[in-house]
Amino acid sequence: MNLPAASRLQFTPDLNICRILNGMWQVSGAHGRINSQVAIDSMFKYLDAGFTTWDLADHYGPAEDFIGEFRCQLVDTRGKDALSQIQAFTKWVPRPGKMTKKFVEENIDISLRRMNVQSLDLMQFHWWEYRDKNYLDALKYMAELQTEGKIKHLALTNFDTEHLKIITEAGIKIVSNQVQFSLVDRRPEVQMIEFCQQHDIKLFTYGTICGGLLSENYLGKPEPRGFDLTTASLKKYKNMIDAWGGWRLFQELLAILKEIANKHGVSIANVAARYILDKPTVGGVIVGARLGVSEHIEDNAKVFSFSLDDGDRDRINAVSRQSRDLYQIIGDCGDEYRR
Ligand SMILES: NC(=O)c1ccc[n+]([C@@H]2O[C@H](COP(=O)([O-])OP(=O)(O)OC[C@H]3O[C@@H](n4cnc5c(N)ncnc54)[C@H](OP(=O)(O)O)[C@@H]3O)[C@@H](O)[C@H]2O)c1
User: Relative to the CA of 56, which ligand 1 atom is closest?
Assistant: First the structure.
């Protein structure tokens, strides 16, 4: 399978990425048991299908090690040049507290070692507590490490617009922010998108297919309860749906999405991803991959095979207008991590 050119984004001068990124939270253990070798074998399938870009974090179980091992096996089987085909975006999620250059560098070095790279393609920094201003020191030291060659590009995850502004005004060049953005959670539309557009910052989005809830699997189905929600991802986004408007409204959304999907010969998940990919400043949608457990490679490739029209978007927006305002309930992007 070859993805069309429209699947690619020249994200930075040196990073050409796939606009559907493979999310690796799903190998952390909270989404079912993962067999390492089967998982790494399946990483080759993603690469060969054109899904070349990985999203991971220091705390996603073995995710960084999987990238390291995948890179080793790529070199062994296909030669060193094959490494240039993959991009791996990690995160550092430290506990708040005093940040020294030594501490920051030690932690970046751990990711470099685990991922078996000389330089991190993208470091997406997360911070739990805005009252603790040490995040600015952490970013300052990471910017130094970038100058020294250990990091190619600096990015954030789950930062709200106010703090993204503070960081930008401190002279730290941020290329992207990773946030939750879906047909259920449209908070980035309130102010994040506009700020990012003004400052040439891309958004990478998660939760875009709500852990799989935005799919045929849940169309016309009774409301799933606790034990039906078998992954951390399903639990997370079911809570979001409850806050947004509940299962009945969600079924209305699924029904409209199904009609639109049928019209284009694609799936509900495709429509949900396409809608967000088309939003301004969105660089890519991250779709979680339970490596070796389940796979949607062929279906997700169809995201690049069709376009939504104004009529499709109007129908979707008409359902969204009936929902509660998550920005009012939760706050700006990432605020759900800081309550
Ligand atoms: N920065 C953060 O705070 C943060 C938070 C959450 C996630 N993330 C990132 O985003 C990634 C995605 O995680 P997520 O929790 O948002 O999950 P998600 O991408 O919304 O959902 C992933 C699940 O959706 C199902 N799926 C995928 N493609 C499908 C298709 N075409 N049709 C039907 N179902 C499909 C699969 O379920 P089955 O496996 O059951 O088939 C898959 O495991 C993570 O791996 C991580 O990289 C970041």
Answer: 47
Residue with the smallest CA separation from ligand 1 atom 15 is 233
Q: How far apart are CA 65 and CA 40, in angstroms?
A: 10
Arithmetic mean of pLDDT, 272-288: 98
0.90 exceeded by the pTM?
Answer: yes
Cα–Cα separations (whole angstroms), residue 144 to 115, 157, 247 = 20, 19, 48
| Cα–Cα distance measured from residue 29 to residue 325, given in angstroms and rounded to the nearest whole number | 32
pLDDT tens per residue across span 204-240: 999 999 999 999 999 999 999 989 999 999 999 999 9
**Close Cβ partners of 191 (under 8 Å, ≥ 6 residues apart):** 161, 332
At 287, the amino acid letter reads: V
* 196 CA → ligand 1 middle, Å: 24
| Non-local CB neighbours of 127 within 8 Å, separated by 6+ positions | 94, 96, 135, 138, 159
Residue 233: φ, ψ to 5°: -70, -45
